[in-house]
Give the backbone structure.
Amino acid sequence: MLTEPSITSELKDRIEEKGRITFEEFMDTALYHPEYGYYTSNKARIGKDGDYYTSTDVHRAFGASIMRQIEEMWNILKISPLFLVEVGAGKGVLCADILLSAREKSPTLFKEIRYFIVEKSPEFIERQKRHIEELGLLDKVSWVPEIKEGLSGNIGIVLSNELIDAFPVHKVRYSNGLWNEIYVTVENGILTEKEDSLSDQRLVDFLTGLEGSFDDGYTTEVNLKAIDWIKGVGNSLQKGFVITIDYGYPRNELYSAERNRGTLMCYFRHQASDDPYINIGEQDITTHIDFTSLAEAGKGAGLEVAGFTDQSYFLMGCGIEEEFQQLEAINAENIGAFKNNITLKKLLIPGGMGSTFKLLIQQKGMERPRLRGFSFKDMAKYL
């Protein structure tokens, strides 16, 4: 007889005590339980041998392009040194690629950067330190528990890459003309879902504000933690930029009729499913983010939108074509250059990473700057 995983037993005990829990609480436990959570234990796997890819796993040109945008921001801010805070740095690849690119292509910027990482997971902190130390960059990076501890005088740049998509969400469903919340309960020893009234007045307010009509059974997610997070970032910043890289849509696209089952997906060894109740604590659970909410909530904390666009347009604006130009001529004898070209294109291809991932940059304490990342196309008007 198979033994039930400890995290599943704990969830069932909690439900027995409370009667039910919100999906947000379930997802928070599955991902961030201090001992058994996917991200806080040693189970999160990134890259070809793991559960999912990020843009940093595809090609170093991604980090080089972000570095060029940071360099322009530094020139706008005119501060010395430059305090750069990355929240949730994964394996530390983006951090390393930004610093390596700065060291090679902008030595003055490299000298000025003070890089800070905010990371919850002890396992990821160790991975980050190992990777960054192997590249001889450890003296450039510090780890801090809060964003504000990485900003001198509340001035600097805050960066996140695929962070918000893993924030726990509320699941809701439109039934008989009303929005109900989906709770997690136990029936016959099995975790299952049950609809009831909304658990939070903020959910009521958010869903009331959605435009358009919804068919009976329309199911989606609401990420209240993302709203709280961007408010916190804005309140910690007096002057500077916030760079958010993630997959998602403006609100009217996210909550459209074609997404009537929501966007929640689970990833286990590169296999995707929409069932969060299997492999609990062993699989990633994500949702597409609402960039409109980030823009609106950020504005309440003094953050103004500096630009919003697809990853492909952003990378082209930051000069990723230089990476193509630096490749050797492709021919039958140069298979390495051919493979390099193909992987580089993965970052740009429409329908893939190039259009799925978006970049939102918000700024505070200055007039709206013209940033090179939005020189090809700025979609801020759609937020």
